[in-house]
Amino acid sequence: MNAYEQLTAIRDQLELNGAHEDSIALVEKFVARAESERLSQTSVPQIMMIRHLLKQREAIDNYAIYNDLQELMSEHDARRQSDDDVRPAYEDNEHHPRPHSYYREQKAKEKKK
């Protein structure tokens, strides 16, 4: 999703969370700025957009905006954590080196050629 789509998704999430009006106004301001990127093919992660919004002067100066954006960050982290927890139990992550006999066989095959 491009920047415009991410910002509109953030605005929708803020509205669902019952965020402060100032938070929604800040995101609306950035949505207006990103209007030119509406058809862009450049993908921007949502977490990056939230971090960018958190660095803005309005967010730093206003506790309501900062807290609303931090809530979105924690929701994003919780989703990411739950995605990591769903890994299959049978997945093997250990390194299994090949035995010396494998390399001996490879060497023997190369000599025969």
Per-chain topology:
Blueprint: H1 3-17, H2 21-33, H3 46-54, H4 57-61, H5 63-85, H6 100-112
Helix pairs in contact: 1-2, 2-5, 3-5
Helix/strand structural class: mainly alpha
Counted up, domains total 1
Low-confidence stretches: none
Q: Main beta sheet: strand number and arrangement?
A: none
- What gap, in angstroms, lies between the N and C termini? 52 Å
Rg estimate, integer Å:
24 Å
Proportion in β-strands: under 5%
Discrete helix count: 6
Q: Helical percent range? A: 55-70%
Order of helices and strands: HHHHHH
Shape: elongated
Q: What do the pLDDT scores average to? A: 88
Would you count the extended β strands for me? 0
Provide structural commentary.
The protein has one domain (3-85). Helix content is 69%, strand content 0%. Helix 1 (3-17) packs antiparallel against helix 2 (21-33) and helix 2 packs across helix 5. The N and C termini lie far apart (52 Å). The model has no long low-confidence stretch (mean pLDDT 88). With 113 residues, it is mainly α. The longest helix is centred in the middle third of the chain and has 23 residues, at 63-85.
Overview in brief:
This protein is mainly α and 113 residues long.
Task: Provide key terms for this protein.
0% strand; mainly alpha; 113 residues; single chain; 6 helices
